[in-house]
Every structure is written in C-alpha cells, then in structure tokens.
User: Fold these one by one.
Assistant:
Number 1:
Amino acid sequence: MGEPVVQVLGGATLADRSKDALAVAFVALLLGIPMVGLTTVDQGGTLQVATRWPILAAFVLAVFAGRLVLRYLADRLGERRVRRERSLTSSDQRRTAGGRRMIVRVGWLAFIGALLLPIAFSDNRYVVDTATTVLIYVMLGWGLNVVVGLAGLLDLGHVAFYAVGAYAYALLSTQFGWGFWVALPVAGLIAAGFGLIIGWPSLRLRGDYLAIVTLGFGEIIRVILINWTEFSGGPNGITSIPRPTFFGLPFKPPSDEPTFASFFGLEFSPVHRIVFLYYVILVLCVLTNVFVTRLRRLPVGRAWEAVREDEIACKALGINVTNVKLSAFVLGAMLGGVAGVFFAARQGFISPESFTFNESAIILAIVVLGGMGSQLGVVLASLVLVLLPELGRDFAEYRMLLFGTAMILIMIWKPGGILSKREPTLRHAREEGRP
Amino acid sequence: MNVVKNKKWESGKCMALALQQLINGLTLGAVYGLIAIGYTMVYGIIGMINFAHGDIYMVSAFIAVSAFTLLASLGITSVPLALLTVLLLSVLFTSVYGWAVERTAYRPLRGSTRLAPLISAIGMSIFLQNMVQLTQGARVKPIPPVVVGGFDLYASEGFTVHLAYSQLLIVIVTVALMAAFSYVIGKTSFGRQQRACEQDPTMTALLGINVDRTISLTFMLGATLAAVAGVLVTVYYGVVDFYIGFVAGIKAFTAAVLGGIGSMPGAMLGGLLIGLVEAFWAAYLSPEYKDVATFSILILVLMFRPSGLLGRPEVEKV
Amino acid sequence: MSERQPLLAVDRLTMRFGGLTAIDDLSLDVHTGRITAVIGPNGAGKTTLFNCMTGFYKPTVGSVRLNHPQRGTLALEALASHQVARAAQVVRTFQNIRLFPKMTVLENLIVAQHNPLQEASRFSLAGLLGLPSYRRAETQAVEKAVRWLTRLGLIDKADLAAGDLPYGTQRRIEIARALCVDPILLCLDEPAAGLNPRESAELNALLQSLVRDDGLSILLIEHDMNVVMNVSDHICVLNYGRKIAEGTPEAIRTNPSVIQAYLGEEEDERYDGDKGAAR
C-alpha cells in the first residue's frame, strides 16, 4: 500500500534535482551580480567599483548545493508526513492533552526560574540586566500578540506606542514631577489613545491598510520626536528621567533622606536597583500575562480569534467587527505604552534612536517566530532574539537579515509559528465532568 | 513708488517660488507615481500590498550607482549612452529581483491565511534592506552628477526659476513609459490576461491562461517601473542609501491609495499630487515635517474616501 | 393567508454591479412559520438577494422590510450587516461554509452568542473579575450551545476544531451556530449542497421541526430538488435576476417556464452537487 505514494514523491531523480538546483543557482547568479559581485567603495571622495567574484562564485555554489540538499530533505519529509497521516489515530488527541500539560509545566518552570534568577546571579549584573531586556521584549511581544496573534491584524509600528509610553513618562516625570507608578497607567492610556486615533480610520477597511498605516505612523512618530526639539529634546532625547522608587525609597548612595539601602540597613550597592527593576518588569509581565490569558477566555477574546478566522461570518452573527478589531489594537497599544514607561525609567535616558522600524520588526519577529497566539512561544522567541546578538558581533550584524529570512521561512513552513498548538477557551468534556 | 516696486517684486518672487515648487513637485511626483503603479498592479492582481516594493526600488538605485561608476571607470563619457546602458542593466537585474520576491514570499503562500503573505513580504523587505546594507555598506553613496545644467525659465532680482535637465529627463521618461504602459495593459494579450486575472483568477485559469505566469510578469513589470524610478532618482539626487526604499515605499503607497488602489492612472495622479504636496509643504510650511504631510493625507483618504480619487468602491466578496 | 402581514417583504429590489444587473425589480414575501424557497439556475441572483437582505450589499433600488414581532418594522437594506443579525434577528449561512476553522465546534457556537455575553461581561470587567453574573451568563450560553449540538447530533464533536470535520458536519455546525443567535428568520444558502442522501433527509426533518417546534421562519436557497419540493411551503423561481414564477411546490413543478428555465438543466445540477461534495 505504501509503495506507490513513496514512489511518486521520491520519484525525483538526481538529474531532476540537479536541473532544478541549476536553475535556482542561475537566478542566484543574476541576483548576486549587482549585490554580491559588485560594490562601490569610497576612494578619496569618489566612488570606485570593487568586484568580489570569488565571493559571488561561493554564493552561487552554496545556493546550488543548498537547494539540492533542501529538495532532497523536503521530499523525504513529505514521504514521512504522508506515512504519519495514514497512521493517525485517536492517540493523537491524547497526545494533545499531554502536550498541553507539558506547556503549562514549562510555563511554571520558566516563571520559577525567572523568580529565582536574580538570587542565583546576585553578583552578576550583566545577567540580570540582560534578563530585564528579555522581559521588556516579552512584554512587547505579548502586547503585539493580542493584535497579530489573536486578532490577526498586522501592526508594523508597534514601536510607536512603545515610544509614546516612554516619552509620556519622560515628560510627565521631568516636567511635572510625576512618580513612576502614577505615570504608568496614565502613559498606558495615552498610548491607547494614539491607538484609537490610528486604528479607527484604518480598521474599518481591509487588513493590509492597517499594516501600512502603522508602518507610516511608526516613522512619523520618529520624525516628530527628532524635529520637535522644544517638546522632545530632538535627536538628543530626554535625560535624567527619574528611576522608579521602592515605595518612595530611592536607590541612591547614602544621603540625608532615607534610601532603600539605609531603610533596610543594607550596604548601598548599585545591584539593588538593577534587581529591583528586574522584579518590576517581571511583575508587569506576570500581570500582562494573567490579563491577556483571562481576556482570551472572555467573549471579547473569542471574538478576536473569530475575526481572525472569518470576518464575514462574524458580521453575519451580529458581531461589530470594527469594534472587536479596535479593542485588540488599542489594548496592544496600551501594553506597548506600559512597556515604554518601564523602558524610559530603566534607561533614565531616551532618544528617537531607540524607536526605529528595526525595533518594530524585532517585536513582530518575536511574535511570528514564537507562534502567533502562544504566550510561551513569545518568551522563547524573546530569549533567542535577545541572546543571539549577545553571542558575538557577527550575529549582531546579521541579526536582522536572519530575522527577515526566518519570517519568510516560518510563514512557508509553519504559518502558526513554532509553538502553534491552539488551546480551546472552553470545553464541553470538562463542563460535563463538573458535579 | 518704491512701495509699489517692492510689492511687484514681492509678488514676482512669490510666483517664481511657486513655479519652482511646481516643477520640483511634479518631478518628485513622477517618481512616486512610477513606484505607485507597481503597488497598484500587484494589489490589483493578488489583492495584497507588496511590502518589498519600496526595497526593490532601493535595490535598483544601488544597481544604478554601481553601473554608473563602472561605466565611468570604463571611460564611457557619452551621457545618453551611459543613461541608456544603466537603465537597461537596472531594469534587467531589478526585474529578476521582482520575480524572486514573488516566487519566495508570495507564491508558496497562495491559499494560506490572509496574514501569512503579508508577514513573509515584510520579512522580505527586512531581508532586502539588510542585505543591501551588508553587501553595499550602510554609508550614503554619492555619485558625480550625470546630467548637468538646465534652463533658467525666469530670472529676476535674486531669484531664478530653474528647470534642470535631469528634471526634464524624469518627466520625459515618465511620460514615455506611461504611454508604453497603457499600450501594454490596454492592447496586448498580456494586458488582457492581466486584467482577466484581476477580475477572476479562477475563471481565467479555467480558460487556460497561466495565472502563475501572469502574476510573475506583473511583479516583474512593477519592478521594471521601480527600476526606472530608482535610476532617475539616482541621477536627480546623486545620493543613495539603503533606507530610501522604506520612506519612498510608504509615500508611493499613499499615492496609490489616494489615486484609488487598483487604478493605474490613479496611481500616477496620486503620485503627482503627493509630490506637489510635499514640495509646497517643504517650501512654505516646514521641510522637516513633509513626511508628516504625506502620512496625514493617507489617514484622511482612508477616513473620507477609501476608494481614492479614481478607484471604484470595493465590494466585499461574500 | 394573503391578508396577513408578511414577516419579510422584499419590494422592487434591483442590484446592479457596473453594467451587470444581478437582481432586476424583484418582489418577494416571506411569511411567518413557513419555509420559503428561492430556486433558480446558477447566476440567477439568489445569493445576491441574500447579500442584499443581510447588509453585505447595498441594493441599487428597492427595499427589504422586516416586520419584527417586538421591534416593529425594520429597513434591512439600511442596516449594517452585523445589525441585521443583532437588531433584526435575521441570520444567514453561507454557500461556501464560513466556520471559524481553528476554533472548536462549541467555541463556534459561543461566538454566535457574543452580544449577550459581551453585555453580561460589562466591557470584560465582570468577566475579568469572574463575577457570578457573568459566570451564570456563560453557563447559560454553553447550555444553549449544548442543546443545539445535541439536537443536531453534533455533541460528540463539541471539542474538535471545526475546520477538521467532514463537509456535511460543517454544514450542520453552521446551521447550529446560526440558531444560537436566536433568529426569527433563518436564511440558508444551499444547506444541502454536498450532503449525501441520508444527510439531506435529516436536513429535511430538521428544517420542518425548526418551523413546527421552534416557531422559526426559514428562507432557503437550494439546488437539491428533493429538499426544496419536500419541505417548502412556498417557492419563488429566479432566472437572470427576475422572478419567473411563484407558488406551491405542486404549482412550480408543473409550471412550463420553470421547467424550461430551470428543471431542464438537470445536467448542470448534478455537476454542481459533485463540485460541492469535492470541496
């Protein structure tokens, strides 16, 4: 029974595959000549052409070999998938249940690990600092996940709301002396307001309009921040933004007023503040997670997913699709704003440099690669995407190139993302089991 | 007496400034229009924004820089010959890029979710931008002026209205290209196939027309126009960097929406309008915020006339 | 019978797309407690009629009036599509089934009860806090969904992803989902397309029981003559956007213009059914 299918799939001979790989290599050559083969270098004020034919040859050869191997692997994988689909039984469902329990367990483990991390690395500033950065991206990712993963809207300017939150806190604190905890919700609401202004005109229309509007908005916010010097400090940004305090106790070297260290009778150490900041973002992340996970199980959350699946069906069922989309977009904007507040408070300094399109692209990559709609996937992707450039300069340089490539490949290979198992929001079976 | 003369001088200067901005705006607008047609064509045929289109334009500008430099080092000094060669080279290589974008980021995802091709396209845009940055360098590339000189249309005390030859070139090439293009879309069999695919791809396929090939060709044609725009901009400004595709992409898309997405004359009209708004805004209000002006237009059009100036209202397919 | 006010009155409806007239001056009444069928060859304008009635298209000319027993007379052609379902309680299904494929069957039916649930959740606040009022509403929603799933024989599929189920099952899920909106008028677009004979017999029984036991009114677009002739009280025949005949199944069966326009094209019919099944 198995033979004919295997034969069809494995039918491609070496000659076929070579021919295909040769064609691809030829295209690679055409693409490579102007970009890889040629370049221009500045020599004493004028440009000169420099050739890199050996690199081009290596590139074309690599494409040829890569295509050959990839095609072979793809064919083999295809065969295996066909076999697996045939032997699909009810055990599949049990496996799903097991997978769900596993994910919950991994989630708790990650949380406990995150809780203990500063204690384990109390003498290593760098680790705690990097972990804080990871958590900022987790929070941004979770915010964007509501928009992209749940509601299925493409937001290419998430960083704009991050910037709005950061500048809102920076201005509220430096100009009006607002504290971190008071400014946090207010800045979140301001970001949400911007989300409303941007979302309302574009969300009534087709999905792709939102993508381009958010893309433009992200750029415009940056242009305004750079040019409106009186308001935002221009390219220099805003400095000496107050850091969050521990219930009014600042993290400062000993002075007349009580500080965190003096109050608790500790010796002053700059690590205190870093650890404290880490726990602040951890708390914010946990709150976000609980909030989003609960919302997903409410009517509004189910409506987000329903709109993602089929807008027209939603309309026929009496759901106001625009409002549903708007609620997801505004919520995402608000969470982005809150993350921005934390960012500003942590850095103590912000400038338009931190809010470029690349930043939006990284956040989107986190959501896309992690698995749209999956909370744990976002955490894993944030870890990988933040730690990767830390591994070496080469990685940092090629980072965006890799992200772009990964986004294309993931969409082709597994559009749901790496962790894409969807968890139903309610079950009949359990419902029945209840007394 | 003196006052009258002053006033006259003032109004003359005003007129001159406006005329100059008109020229600059139309030049810029022609370039936006050329890029916008690529958006509109792709949108027409697959109903999706080609997010990588702005980067295709950027790639072509880099090809132009390399080609001009190469020709100069070969000692070719004839301007028309150099221009023609660069245009041909750029169109050739850039259309391969257009083809490759469709094959990798769009075709494998036909029939997938609505979001998937959008994400892969933005991935492609990120890839192209960073690829160029890595292979060609992040610095701005200046080339020596190719087309120098121009006419002084009007000169009075302290102010001249100048029409550069490069501006004239842009307008002439754009007009010629538009004419050729209307012919291709309106009269050739490819044009008929293209329009058929726009209206009903399934039916078109049933009639034995190769839809895949038509879509590929549409991407390549869009890239061709972007390539010409890239060469013209390189000639006009003389500088290129890897970021130009991003901003030009957003503006050209705005132009396509303003003109009515799916409509080719609309895209050109939208491009010219955006170019004019930008030039006048930069001259009279503030050059720093000219991008804000374009973006505000996008938002206003989406709010009040989402079908654009020449577009037909979209009917949701139920 | 004719003196009674109709539930739905389509009056001189015309829909043009550019130069194409999809519906041409069509008038049609749908009465309470009946099954009304609209039949006609492919491209006769049946689905366009549904789209005009349910707010997806704005008709070029004409009106669609619903005499709602509690809410008075409503102009459906002026309502947005979601308002047609929400305010007028006219709910439709789609020819090319539109489920939420990744969501479970039960979730599909809960989403259909979005509006009352959203109200009960008070902007999600009561829901976030898990207040008893919201939990009660949710339990009721689940109960209603379970009731319809049981009635349509889908209860053992409740926790499966809707998109993974067979075609015939998906059709039933879509009907069950529409029923969860509490319609007074249920509009079904080719509910029997792609069903096997046993399934389409079950559908007949279901439609009749919905009218008899639940007091629903049904408007039906259908190709399957078995279904149409067995269950309809009243049939309206369209051809090229015009009404060419109207009456009881017996009258339609013997109407010469109908036979010519529609029943003569049996070959096409069979092809259409096959296509549906293959989908």
Number 2:
Amino acid sequence: MNHVFASLEILINMSVLVYTESENGVFKKASLEVASYAKGIADMMGTSVTAVAVNGGDTAPLGTYGVDKVLNIKDAKLDAFNAAAYAKGIAAAAKAEGAQVVVLTQSANAKYLAPLLAVALEAGYASNVVSLPESASPFTVKRTAFTNKAFSHTEITTAIKIVGLGQNAYGLKEASGAAATEDFSPELGDFGVEVQSVDKATDKVSIADAEVVVSAGRGLKGPENWGMIEEMADILGAATACSKPVSDLGWRPHGEHVGQTGKPVASNLYIAIGISGAIQHLAGINSSKVKVVINNDPEAPFFKAADYGIVGDAFEVVPELNEKLRAFKAANS
Amino acid sequence: MKILVCISHVPDTTSKINFTDGDTKFDTNGVQFVINPNDEFGLTRAMWFKEKQGASVDVINVGGPETEPTLRKALAIGADTAIRVNVEAKDGFQVAKELAKVVQDGGYDLVIAGRESIDYNGGMVPGMLAGLTGANFVNTCISLDVDGTTATATREIDGGKETVKTSLPLVIGGQKGLVEESDLRIPNMRGIMMARKKPLNVVEPSGAETETNAVSFEKPAPKGAVKLVETVDELIDLLHNEAKAI
C-alpha cells in the first residue's frame, strides 16, 4: 500500500519547496527553521521537501532538519543578492519540482523577493505566518496583522502557495535524514538592479538574526550613555535596538529603530531599558517571546506588556546587571 | 518625470484594533484613518522631486469612497492629482493588479509605495506591481535619487544597508529614511483649500481577482501580569530557570 502511494507521489511530482538562505555558504538559523517548517507541511500533505539554495556550502544541516533534496544554484553573479534573479531561480526550482507550497523566511531579502516570486508563479502569498497551516485544503494559515495587534486566518486560493514564516515562530525540529544535493542552473534573466556597495557591520548580530535584543530609549538621557547597552549586548551575544524618539533624535542609527514604522523584532528575549512602551513600539516587538523591562517609572505602559520587570534607575540597574550577567555567562558556558 | 505614489488608507497608529461581524471584519467604529506612515515618507520624497526636479506627482488608492479624505490629505500635502480605483481592496494581489493597469495606462516612470501597510502588513503590493509591470524594484528603500533615467537607491538589509544602481521605470517599497520624520509635512490652510480644487478622479476597476482571502481575525490572548523583581540576581535566575531565555 505504501509502495503504491510512493509511486503516485512520483507521478504527480509534488513537493514542498523551501528557500534556504546562506551567508558565505553557511545556512542561517532561520533557514533551518523554515526547513523544519517545510517538513511539517510536507508531513501534512504526505510529500517531500526540496530546498533551493544559492551558492550554498555544506548542505548536511538541511538534511538534519527534514530536507530530502537540495537544488544548489551556483553562480558567482549571485554572490550579491538580486531580488529579480533570485526570484527567477526559485521560481524555476518550484516548477522543476512541481512544488505546491513554497516556504520562505521573513529576512529583508526574502521579503524583497517574495512578491516577485508570487507574480512569476501566479501564487498567492501570505507573509508573517506564525504556525503550520490550519488546514491543507482549503489552505489556511494564521498570520499576524495590524502590526502584531491581531492575527488573521488567511486562505490562499491559488494552485501554488507561498508562505513567509515569521522568525522564531516555529523553531527548529530535527528530523533524521540526509539531503541529496544537485546543482541547478536556471535562467536568471535581467538583473535590473546592481549592487554598488554594502555597508554591514560584520562583528555585530543583526536584529533579524538575534536571539536576544537589548533595546534602549530616551530614559538613557543621551547617546553618550549607550556604552552599557552595547556592553550588555556583547555579554549576551545580542543585537542592539532603540525606540523611535532615540532614532529621530539621531542618538542611534535608523537601522536600530524597532517598532511599527521601524524594524519588527521576534527574538526569544527582548530587554527594554528606559523605554516607556508607546503602543507603536509595543506593536513592533510583540512577537518577541520573553520581554524584560527596566524603567524608573512604575506607571510606564511597557510594564503591562512585559513578562519581567525591574522598577529602578537604569544607571544603577544596568551596570550591576552587566556585571552579574558576565559572571553568569562565565559560569554557564 | 511622472511619479505615482500609492496611498493606503489605514487606522492611525494609536488605534485600538477590534473586529466585528463574527470577527470577520475590521471594526472601523471610532477609528481615525491616516495615510499609511510608510507611504507618507514616500509622498514627502516625491514632493522633493516635484520641487527640485520638476516631477509631476499623482497619488492613488484602491478603495471605496471612504478613503477620499486620505487622498485629499495627500493633495493638501502637495500632490497634483488623485486617483481612486473604485473597488474594495481585498488582497495584495488584487490591489497590485488594479494599480498595474493605472501605471501602464498612465506611463509612470517612478512608483513609490510603502514597504507595507500597517494594517494588513502584507508587504507585497510594491513588489507585485513591479513584477506585473516589468519595472525594476527596490524594497525597504531609505534613500532615492534620480538622474535622467538612472536611479541610485539605498535599501535597508538585515544588519546594515546596501546602495544600488538601477533605472526607470522603477517601483520603490519605501519607509522612514526616504525622508526624516521631521521632514513630514502637515497640510496648511492654503494646501487644504487648494486640495479641494484639485482633481480626484474615480476610475472603475479592471476586475482583478484575488489570490488570498482573510477568512477571520483574532486578537492575541490577554497577557499575564508582569513579574516585578527587586534584584538583578532574581531577574537572572528567572530568565535562566523559568523563562529559559538565557
């Protein structure tokens, strides 16, 4: 019986395709998470998982998280990200594999290429999805909407479905297996957009990739006081972030602004220091799992949205916390 | 240069979000609507192109008559003409397809849309519009200059930024950075008076289909009370042993 089903699958050639991003050939944690998620969907649908990678290195980690097959697009022209060309390559992979579902992360690059991919595949796209499909037919997913103030149960009605999985929404799930890797050389078409320069701090964790985000607000009184915030980020391997007023005042770069009009945060731990917690800020960081607030105003609205809080002066609490976190890390690593 | 700025009509950022009709519709009762903040940064940058480089700036919304005050506000800020595609916006693809028709018929060189609307957060309209019209596309754009048919843009990437060169026709997914918060314009009385006389053209939809359907909505479960601690030792202990976060 199983044998018959297996042959049928091959005949109709359907699969779940997952785009696994890599940096310098190394697959990012978010890629292993979407691989796990694609495996979850494939299990629901009784099919297999194919990953598509661009200049991917060692693909063994993908197998560990449920990928059966990897199509690796190797092309030096793709060393710099190009949304149009990447979308075209992924679309070709989806067609070659007869993919019914395509899974992406919600990295800046994935969000950039997703709508181009949707047009190429005439596929409906649901972004910011937070869990496995609620049903495979109709294909319905739960996603955040109203900047994390609500969820929407969204049905995708097209033959091919594209799902953008929110960061840390599903987690990593190991599955025993090995991925067979094949080179894949699709037509890439016009690039249209050419990268001139990239300005990226290589020694710092980005907010999108961070497990822990340390964020500070106007309560810090001035940009000269950020040393202790950077120190905490350093101890915890965290990214630094800030509130909107702080970026508007120019105390910190815009890229650190988190909230409704800034970057969304979906880290495991979010530590807010001297941030009152305006509704727009809370909306942007709501997807973080554990929230800690340090603020000298017990009435700060952030306390209502937090899991843990210390009412106290940041200039006293943070240095002590840094010292003890450093000792804790030394003892627990 | 002919610029089209896409304007989403969204609840003000401070709005309380509620649903009605058995959680199938957003409850607009008591909600104030504004220009989507990501679109407003783009509109303000478009005003710069108008004033410094002689561009024309039209604004467009896909939606019912209730969105017209938001389009009038864009006219009061300085746009020349507003267009409303007279159909309820149901999903990102339908909106992008309706916009694509207007963009192609109108021969626009540059289309600026917000990277996402703050209500449905689909983040797909600008990219789909580029895909449907064959224009170049730069998302999460934080600076944009145009010289002839060449454009130089900076986009936010994870952990930094990237400068790119491209050419018109171009679609931008814009956000804060295209202009600063302090550059945003509050319509003055003269602008408001002039906006009343500017054309707001209502065009009938081309009948674009949808690809997704928001079946129902749900609010997050209410949050438990915060645990206030007195000492940092206690905090570290809870984060390690209870929350398993460090």
